[in-house]
Specification:
By secondary structure, the chain is an alpha/beta fold. Helix content is 33%, strand content 26%. It has 2 domains: 130 residues, Rossmann fold; 204 residues, Dihydrodipicolinate Reductase, domain 2. Bound molecules: nicotinamide-adenine-dinucleotide. Nicotinamide-adenine-dinucleotide (NAD) binds next to α1.
Length: 371
């Protein structure tokens, strides 16, 4: 008997939409899944865009009407890869008709609307997953296992940052990412390092943040001579205290000249330490104290670190960014079929959003904020 096929509706066919489509297309050939995804409908901002992207990405049809996609009986899972301000209305409409919702980060533009999405999903009992794909890295899972197993002792410090350079030029234009409603470096990429901090060290209890706008104006559109004010942060530096008592810092920075994908951290424990950077995502550094031999040991990714082996039987051949999305989609489909949901679900993404808003409040108040 063939596997049950499950209709996918994808809203938004930009950077992330293509990444999701790739994952839905390839996942069944890599993972043993209880069901087979079928690329049913793709929605984008116009019919023309939607039809072109549907054909290019392997969807049966395209539409400019995401509401029609959400309510179409062929769609069982709604994947949201549209700009942030659309996440809440699309997700709420999908939840209202009982669909599984797979939403990109940040979950919404405010913690208040992220909470409304979370409560609606929980009341309806639908499966939700949020695209914090960097947590799917087998090296990150190994780090969590090492911490949970007590190998580096009690965690005392977390120093993390997500630094990229895509807004490092004053001429990088406005986009949904600079929308005062929910934009900024902290919401855009800070959400990733906050989710990572929570995943590895646990809930954050207190923050004190400095949010800075480096460039007061940016072009209104790519190549435009007209400039408009910037109302969001280009970089945020925050001190954090975790519920466990561990302390540290978090930086979100999209104007970090020289950095392409520095989602990185170092975690200190009473017996050892761990360090990681997404720029070398197939390596985890483990520090141990041995007389005359103290230092970091580099652990190379391989089939010993599931689910690396789903992609390649040989160590050191490396997973890439898109593979993390394939892992995420495999977990989404298993959860949709009734298996465990490893998350992060909407509730966890709401908690991430609360941390971000606490940092923004702290910046305005110039002091510590308790969550
Ligand atoms: N998880 C990650 O690593 C990661 C990386 C990049 C972006 N993202 C998230 O993905 C989302 C999209 O970001 P992106 O970089 O792909 O942006 P993008 O601008 O490349 O793509 C957005 C797409 O949405 C479409 N769109 C706009 N309005 C629409 C509407 N009304 N109906 C349907 N489609 C519409 C646009 O035409 C475009 O195709 C954001 O929430 C972003 O934060 C996540």
């Amino acid at each position: 008997m063939g596997k049950q096929d499950t209709g996918i509706g994808l809203v938004g066919a930009g950077f992330m939409g293509r990444c999701h489509a790739n994952a839905f297309r390839s996942v069944a050939g890599l993972f043993d899944l209880p069901l087979q995804p079928r690329l049913a409908i793709l929605a984008d901002a116009s019919d023309d865009l939607a039809e072109k992207s549907a054909a290019a990405l392997g969807f049966a049809r395209g539409t400019s009407d995401w509401r029609a996609l959400v309510s179409d009986p062929e769609v069982e899972i709604v994947a949201i890869t549209a700009p942030n301000a659309l996440h809440a209305p699309i997700a709420l409409a999908a939840i209202a008709v009982g669909k599984t919702v797979y939403c990109e980060k940040p979950l919404s533009t405010t913690a208040e609307s992220a909470l409304a999405m979370t409560l609606a999903a929980e009341a309806a009992g639908v499966t939700t997953l949020v695209g914090f794909n960097f947590l799917r890295n087998p090296m990150i899972r190994l780090a969590r296992e090492i911490i949970a197993g007590g190998e580096i002792g009690e965690i005392t410090g977390f120093r993390g940052r997500h630094a990229e350079n895509y807004m490092a030029s004053p001429d990088a234009p406005h986009s949904f990412r600079t929308d005062p409603a929910g934009g900024g470096a902290l919401a855009d990429i800070g959400s990733h390092i906050v989710s990572m901090a929570r995943y590895l060290v646990g809930p954050i209890a207190e923050v004190q943040a400095d949010c800075r706008t480096i460039f007061p104006t940016r072009p209104v559109a790519p190549g435009s001579a007209e400039r408009a004010p910037v109302e969001v942060d280009d970089m945020t530096h925050a001190l954090v205290r975790f519920e466990t008592g561990a302390a540290g810092s978090i930086e979100a920075n999209w104007a970090a000249t020289a950095r392409h994908m520095d989602l990185s951290w170092e975690i200190s424990g009473t017996k050892g330490a761990l360090a990681f950077s997404q720029e070398r995502m197939n390596e985890l550094l483990l520090w141990s104290d041995r007389p005359g031999r103290s230092g970091y040991t580099r652990i190379d990714s391989g089939p010993a670190h599931p689910p690396y082996g789903a992609f390649c039987p040989a160590p050191g051949h490396h997973l890439g960014f898109n593979d993390l999305k394939v892992i995420e989609v495999a977990e989404l489909l298993a959860a949709h079929a009734g298996g465990d949901n490893p998350g992060p679900d909407f509730r966890e993404a709401y908690e991430v959003q609360r941390v971000i808003e606490a940092m923004q409040r702290s910046d305005r108040a110039r002091g510590w904020v308790t969550l």
